Amino acid sequence: MSTIGQHNLAVLGERSFEQKGDYETLLFEGRWHRSGELFERSRRIGAGLSGLGIEPGERVAVMMANSPEVGIAYQALWRAGAVVTPANFLLSVEELRHVISDSGAVAVITTPEFAGKVTDATAGLDGVRLVISSGEVEGLVPLSSLEEAEPAEIVPRSDGELAALMYTGGTTGRAKGVMLTHANLDYAGKAGFEASYVPGVNRGLATLPLSHSYGLLVTIASLHHPERGVGALLRWFDPVAFLELIAEHQLQQTAVVPTMLQILLSQPLEEHDLSSLRFVTSGGAPLAPEVAEQFIRRVPGVSIRQGYGLTETAALISSSPVGREKPGAVGLPVPGTELRILDEQNRELPAGEVGEICARSPGVMRGYWHSPGATAEAVRHGWLHTGDLGYLDEQGYLFIVDRKKDLIIRGGFNVYPRDVEDALLEHPALEAAGVIGRPDQRHGEEVIAFVSLRPGAELGEAELIDWARGRIGGYKYPREVHIIDAVPLTNIGKVDRKALRARLQDHPAPNVPEQLGDAQPA
Ligand code: AMP
Asked: Which of 335, 342, 330 is nearest to 363 (CA)?
């Protein structure tokens, strides 16, 4: 039997409650929840799970939209020694089935709204012994019945044992299970807290999906906060509710992905009292400088901080140091994390040169589930090869250039889609932009942009091509811009370049004869 580790997340939750005591802590859909109630429910459900035969180390999938029950379920699973396997509710039946069967989950916890999806996804999967629902659904075990159990002690799990098996977004290829231990997640939560702690800032808004490592990181970080924190939780991102909650409850900080900021810029920000808002942390995807600048201009007194990481590093690598944020940078490596920029031959590059970002830290995953080959490729001598391109400046600040796999090579020249997206997003009429390469006979690849407009904006595609051409090198600007209703986003709200590539079928490469003059980069 395992001994209980000092980084055990159930212990962390228990310690946090004992330290701060019972008070109104969480606002969800108009109702305040007390910390005592949340803690008590997680203790009972933890015991209930053990009572239903959930063994330490077994995986349990959780498919729920954000609600207090998500945090309760995670804590309950850790108390029972189980491994949380979050599944975003936007997953298709097929994708969910992959997560459940690949992880070997023995149970699923869900809500009535997704019960049908879970039932379809688990059909014929003999390993699934139990489906639990937070509300009454015929044939499923109600979560309330687990709450009847008498609270029990935490089932011991050591620091190196798994706390979560998280399936990566799958923006490239099939979703892989990332094995994160108690030590991995506790390290990242603590480092995230330390990098962002400002005494007295303890009123937050949580809107990121708790099924994603970034959302999980933010919640674990809050357990390290020594003050009695108050948080409003949104079921999912809703720009109007986001602004109203900040104004009504004087919230001071929040964490977002950049597309949320872009969507917020389409709102009448000036009509809301956002004077309490001090810190917005942006992570998960590249933040266009123009979007950050506009937001700061329109919400006086707010600082935008950036965080960078991957599910494979328990979501954290670097973060903007408080008060020393540098525009465009994703900050400095958090304490305990080392960074290197490597070239194709694995040689370390000096400041200013672009290469692959590699990180070593106590947050680096134990590996990919059942995939020693993929693990050996990603983690070499303890160093995670992120697949992201970036550089360090003289002060050690990290700048992200783009994902290595998304690099477009047009006529022998490197085009980072992000540069093109950033240039397009300087246009005030644009809400979102996604840029990809399309195989092209003449140039190897061609730069293609998909954009969506702010409500009410009218603009032609040619105008946008000219706009980009005026801002970036002649070899980089998009030769085609397609205005679409909504740029597809991943489950956490990143521009989904994989989905855009699928759309290329509707926009095949024209079979144009060679034209002199256009072959030169200009
Ligand atoms: P995920 O595993 O879903 O968290 O995705 C991790 C990827 O998101 C990284 O490899 C980066 O490509 C991207 N990413 C995360 N944070 C940032 C950031 N602050 N700026 C740019 N890209 C980011």
From this structure: 335
